[in-house]
Specification:
The protein is an alpha+beta fold. About 25% of the residues lie in helices and about 30% in strands.
């Protein structure tokens, strides 16, 4: 697979006068984005159950995630001033060639920018890139305690296809991983 690049930075507000959604810039993840991505991810490590890790992770984690996403759509979401509002990427579900048309999705948005349509615009751009790469199925592994993410995925056509019961233990709390799937 080749590196997915949207046709230049994408201003994702429908029009400059569209006050329903803040203007955002979607662009490929660069090496310069790694520190802000790590800060955002580690925010969720420390605040809740969206990220499965129990302790903040080192920069090598983002490097590994980006290595896995090589050749797949991987985008940042920034405000017009360049502040990272979120990131999303696809990566292989399984390294075997028979799974080449299936990808897993990961994305995180700044907590002060949830429920503003940003996640929807990020998802749509990742899906568009996935289709261009021949990906037919997107999988998401979601904490059973993350009702917001479960609702978001349902709203966007993901169906629950499985549940690993009580496989995660974080901060003394056992929870399930819910697997959701969207056919493109």
């Amino acid at each position: 697979m080749r590196q997915y690049v949207p046709s230049g930075p994408v201003l994702a507000a429908e029009t400059p006068t569209d006050h329903r959604h803040p203007p955002i810039l979607l662009s490929p993840i660069t090496l310069a984005d790694r520190p802000a991505m790590l800060d955002l991810f580690n925010y969720y490590v420390e605040h809740g159950f969206s990220a499965f890790a129990e302790q903040p992770l080192p920069p090598a984690f983002i490097d590994r995630l980006l290595d896995l996403a090589r050749g797949y759509p991987a985008l940042t979401v920034k405000d017009p001033a360049g502040r990272l509002l979120g990131f999303g990427l696809l990566r292989p579900h399984n390294p075997l060639p028979t799974f080449a048309h299936t990808a897993e999705i990961t994305y995180f948005l700044a907590p002060d920018h949830l429920r503003q349509g940003i996640g929807t615009r990020l998802l749509h751009n990742l899906e568009r890139g996935a289709k261009e790469e021949g990906i037919r199925t997107i999988l998401a592994g979601i904490s059973s305690l993350n009702e917001g993410s479960l609702a978001f995925h349902r709203k966007h056509g993901f169906l629950e296809v499985g549940r690993f019961r009580q496989v995660c233990l974080k901060k003394g709390t056992l929870f399930d991983v819910v697997w959701m799937q969207r056919m493109l």
